[in-house]
Design a protein that fits this description.
It is a single chain. It is built from eight helices and 15 strands. By secondary structure, the protein is an alpha/beta fold. A hairpin with a 2-residue loop joins strand 2 (about 40-45) and strand 3 (about 50-55). Helix 1 (about 5-25) packs across helix 2 (about 65-80). The relative contact order is 0.11. It folds into two domains: about 5-95, RNA methyltransferase domain (HRMD) like (Transcription Regulator spoIIAA, 2-Layer Sandwich), CATH 3.30.750.80; about 115-310, Rossmann fold (3-Layer(aba) Sandwich), CATH 3.40.50.150. The strands form four sheets. The chain has a seven-stranded mixed β-sheet with strand order 9-8-7-10-13-15-14. Bound molecules: S-adenosylmethionine. S-adenosylmethionine binds near residues 135, 209 and 230.
Length: about 325
């Protein structure tokens, strides 16, 4: 097995660099390690006083016992380097997932705690689900949304815990609608809204399948000045008709959003699917600009973490 000190040394170097970087920018949740040493295929994110350590499946063949020992040595190394108690280093194994599996519970209850970003507060939980409640790779995108929100009606599709809406409200959105299929995440979004003192009479939460929701809104002739749509790669919940496949369905989804945009309205469309190809020819607009260079934060060395476009009608 590879010497753990190789990992410790690299983590120490990265941690110093990114902690300084984050401090200058008043950032409290950020990525410090992303499979930098191939023998240690983990990703480590700081969430204030805790760390989220994910192991990526490389298909290595080792026994369960050896693996458990390896995981413990990595956790202990992280605890020592980051000067955090071992219990604050939350370890997860991340396998290739499809569909709703990725939103399932891990089995652990975990602890909800509050982190700060961009002057806002968000509830995260590093243990209960595979994801934490706040996707750090969209930190810049959230700021862009806040900057564009003044005086606009905002729509957040596939909203998860509603963090884009918190930013839009802070940026002066007059009203908003936050749509997600999951009761759990709608409830989490509501708690985030309350935590940030949002006026719940102007910011509505709708538990719905985005496909059905968009059809209704188009039929009703609704208009929005700003839309964020960040769909999962694949989803096949029992609560929706059929399945969602972002590669197959993105043109339908984007074209529906275009119908809801005001004259000067804008749509942020994002995906984490690595192999994604935007089918521009099938879109009912020519005003499409990829802005991933702006949206992917510096602390994400993996520059393919997501892709993002700004689309106008
Ligand atoms: C990748 S997350 C979106 C991340 C979010 N935009 C953010 O930055 O925090 C995907 C979300 O889509 C929701 N979802 C999946 N299929 C859906 C559907 N057909 N309609 C509405 N929401 C759906 C899931 O419940 C989950 O919260």
């Amino acid at each position: 097995m590879t010497d753990i000190s190789i990992f410790s040394n690299r983590l120490r170097k990265n941690s110093r660099h990114w902690a300084k970087w984050a401090k200058r920018r008043n950032i409290h949740c950020y990525r410090i390690y992303d499979r930098d040493v191939p023998e240690f295929p983990v990703v480590l994110d700081i969430y204030e006083q805790k760390a989220h350590l994910q192991e990526f499946d490389t298909g290595w063949q080792i026994s369960e016992e050896e693996h458990a020992l390896w995981v413990e040595s990595v956790r202990m190394a992280a605890s020592e380097v980051l000067e955090l108690p071992p219990a604050a280093i939350i370890f997860k194994q991340r396998q290739r997932q499809r569909g709703m599996a990725q939103y399932e519970k891990t089995g652990a209850r975990g602890e909800d705690f509050i982190v700060h970003e961009g002057g806002h507060r968000f509830i995260v939980n590093l243990e209960e689900y595979l994801d934490t409640g706040l996707f750090l790779d969209h930190r810049n995108t959230r700021r862009l949304v806040q900057e564009k929100a003044a005086g606009k009606r905002f729509l957040n599709l596939f909203a998860y815990t509603g963090s884009f809406t918190v930013y839009a409200a802070a940026g002066g959105a007059t009203r908003s609608t936050t749509v997600d299929l999951s009761n759990t995440y709608q409830d989490w979004a509501r708690r985030n809204f309350e935590l940030n003192g949002m006026d719940m009479t102007r910011h509505e939460l709708i538990r719905a399948d985005v496909f059905g929701f968009l059809n209704e809104e188009v039929k009703q002739g609704e208009r929005y000045g700003l839309i964020v749509m960040d769909p999962p790669t694949f989803s096949n919940s029992k609560k929706m008709n059929g399945a969602l496949d972002v590669q197959r369905d993105h043109t339908l989804l984007i074209n529906q959003c275009l119908k809801l945009l005001t004259e000067d309205g804008e749509l942020f469309f994002s995906t984490n699917l690595r192999s994604f190809q935007l089918d521009e020819a099938a879109l009912e607009t020519r005003q499409v600009a990829e802005i991933s260079g702006q949206t992917i934060p510096e602390d994400f060395r993996n520059k393919k973490i997501h892709r993002c476009w700004l689309i106008r009608r």
